[in-house]
Amino acid sequence: MLNYSYMEKLTFICERDGKIIDLLCKKGLSYNICQKSLRNKDIKVDQKRINKNILVVKGQEISIFYEEPIQSINKIYEDENLLIVDKPQGIEVEGESGLAKRFEALAVHRLDRNTTGLTILAKNQEAKDILDRAIKNRTITKKYIARVIGQTNFNGEYTAYLVKDSAKSLVKIYNSPVKNSVKIISIFKTIENKEDNSLVECTLVTGKTHQLRAHLAFLGHAIIGDGKYGKNSDNKKFGAKFQLLRCFYIKFNKLEGNLNYLNGKEINIDKNFNIKSKNLLT
Known about the structure:
alpha+beta, 40% strand, globular
């Protein structure tokens, strides 16, 4: 287990009007962290420092420099070639304060900042090359659990077409091929239905940016807490500040060379989101 605190910077373009603290909290930051950064004038709007919870409008740039509280990162598996950790919410895999740098390793399996769960890090370049090829060839099985809006009846493979908009840091999903689209395949299985939400097991066949988040939203069942592909009204209703998506299972298949000893190995961890919302606990 690794415990640490570190300085972090977050910069983004406002997608809607709102008070500065509200918008930062929707990005997964705690209210206390936002208040402290505001007092210290560590928040900028369009490159100008502020110390009040002002109203900002769509299109303005917000930057915040803040100290993350001490967090615990559990090592799930480790050998001389790779490390698998349970990534907490709010931490990048790469970057100056990312998991790879902190463990002095190379990123292989990348999760979004606010997605939790199993993350693969390589300890040497040879291992990374083998694991990268395995992911490209789809010989590493990755399963996620997601809490989504509405009742679902998933039980199979779902195909769609994805277009990445790098400038806006999001993707769009279509039923049929369009210009610059790539085919995506996801397997969804309903585990539990409640009155207004469902628990869904998700398996990546292809692994594209935001694939599960965007695909589920396209199918009418956005992940609860997803501020990019879901609805703010739904997220507010459930009291979820980040997407309830967790990678809980990895299986290695057909690995080459020095990593063939891992073939058939399964890593399985708990599916707990650490949910505080009463609406989701009952």
